[in-house]
């Protein structure tokens, strides 16, 4: 079965100080490691105005190194996001990590002493949906009633070029 997913989050300004809010976020990239997960593309050789997927570079991933990088850095990124959020990791109701690999998710949770009951996973249902994995998991758990109003959610992801991000919000 093939699944094509797209995710988007729409934010709206609110005058209520205690309503839905973003506590903090942390974004960045480790460009010196961008060759661990990348598409090799020769900009001089190919013209993007003429779409032809077959002639562009293919995705390359050094899975072992991406795994090592992710399990050691996602906890640091999450801690940096929490650092200025005026909450503790224990205050977070649910964690949604990029749904790339269950071993990564379980190892990150273990390294942070987060029980898997607080980690939302839909990898078994949809596999790795790339950039849509976090919005898809978030939406699905709102729909099924697991995520409720005023829950504090932490979302962390990583991707190509060894970019990463973490946001902590009240739903």
Automatic annotation (TrEMBL):
Beta-ketoacyl-[acyl-carrier-protein] synthase III C-terminal domain: residues covered: 83-171
Keyword field: Acyltransferase, Transferase
InterPro entries per UniProt: ACP_syn_III_C, Thiolase-like
GO-annotated molecular function: acyltransferase activity
Pfam families tied to this protein: ACP_syn_III_C
GO biological process: secondary metabolite biosynthetic process
Domain of life: Eukaryota
Name the UniProt record assigns to this protein: Oxoacyl-ACP synthase
Lineage summary: Eukaryota, Sar, Alveolata, Apicomplexa, Aconoidasida
């Amino acid at each position: 079965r093939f699944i094509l997913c797209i995710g988007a989050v729409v934010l709206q300004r609110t005058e209520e100080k205690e309503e839905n809010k973003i506590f903090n976020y942390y974004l960045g990239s480790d460009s010196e490691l961008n060759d661990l997960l990348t598409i090799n593309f020769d900009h001089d050789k190919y013209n993007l105005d003429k779409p032809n997927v077959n002639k562009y570079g293919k995705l390359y991933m050094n899975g072992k190194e991406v795994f090592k990088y992710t399990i050691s850095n996602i906890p640091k990124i999450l801690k940096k996001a929490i650092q200025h959020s005026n909450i503790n990791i224990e205050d977070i109701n649910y964690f949604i990590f990029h749904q790339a690999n269950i071993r990564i998710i379980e190892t990150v949770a273990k390294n942070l002493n987060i029980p898997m009951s607080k980690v939302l996973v839909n990898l078994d249902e949809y596999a790795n949906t790339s950039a849509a994995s976090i919005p898809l998991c978030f939406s699905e758990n709102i729909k099924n009633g697991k995520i409720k109003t005023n829950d504090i959610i932490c979302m962390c992801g990583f991707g190509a070029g060894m970019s990463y991000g973490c946001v902590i919000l009240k739903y």
